[in-house]
Amino acid sequence: MSRPDxxxxxxxxxxxxxxxxxxxxxxxxxxxxxxxxxxxxxLAPDQxxxxxxxxxYDHLAASRLTDLRDRRAVLDAVADGPFDLxxxxxxxxxxxxxxxDPVGSLATNIMGTVHLLEALRDEEALAAILVITSDKVYANxxxxxxxxxxxxxxxxxxxxxxxxxxxxxxxxxARSFFDRAGVPVATARGGNVIGGGDFSRDRLVADIVRAARxxxxxxxxxxxxxxxxxxxxxxxxxxxxxxxxxxxxxxTPRSLNFGPKPGAAEITVGDxxxxxxxxxxxxxxRHEPDxxxxxxxxxxxxxxxxxxxxxxxxxxDGPQAVAWTMDWYRRQGEGEPARxxxxxxxxxxxxx
Length: 352
Fold this sequence. Notes:
This protein is of the alpha/beta class. The chain is built from 13 helices and 13 strands.
């Protein structure tokens, strides 16, 4: 199976948006460890604790606190280039937060993408741009079928709609501007990720950890719901392998799903929570239904195209992903530095 290649990334000038977020913090650390010169572009962390603050920023070439909704600020930040590759991870990623603030979430996820792509149009050194969207970009009727890349886009909630729109915006910029400049632009649709260092509200693992540390039982709204759970490192490895291929092979697809191995058993929210609370020795979860929720009950993505075209698939199964995640939180809660834990898990993942 393909994996992120340090020989490819060494010396590459990488613009990473969203470096203060959960995925972005892991990405910045891993890329820097492989020798990339990473410039981070994002808002300041919006929660305490924040993984990016725990890791520090000295491994980055630069850390720019910028609101992607501010076109002029984005233009000024991109002017700090040149950049060889761009990984656009910045987003408002929480479904319920988007319901509470649909205008702000739509502005960040749609117009933030527009502002970034517009600012990059004159970047002459670019080898590839990868825009990270979501497994929720598909029009989901809860039929239970795993979505493939050619399926219709949609979104019955503001977050899903914003990410589907980001897909359309990205494709339009690629065809109108970047294709003629010879710069491949693609989107990656990642499944639900878990891993150490996520402290966001309304995220299942983060909620479980907070409840466990407070001696309380976590509350689940939809324990029967299924999601394409995967470990952060599996998802991130897929993104990096995808970016490598875009820069090296013109026949690389322009949209790919990343999720559990094809044929992997479905894991419900309740299943994951049961294993997580058992790992932490926490109180059993309890169910409090939310009749107003419009979240999908069933969500699955077919990641077989990534296997066929990139020779890439996830390495950790569901129970392993939960075990790695809970081990990170347990050890961090006992005082081990977050940076050491992340680097150790990156080492362990690379040796699989």
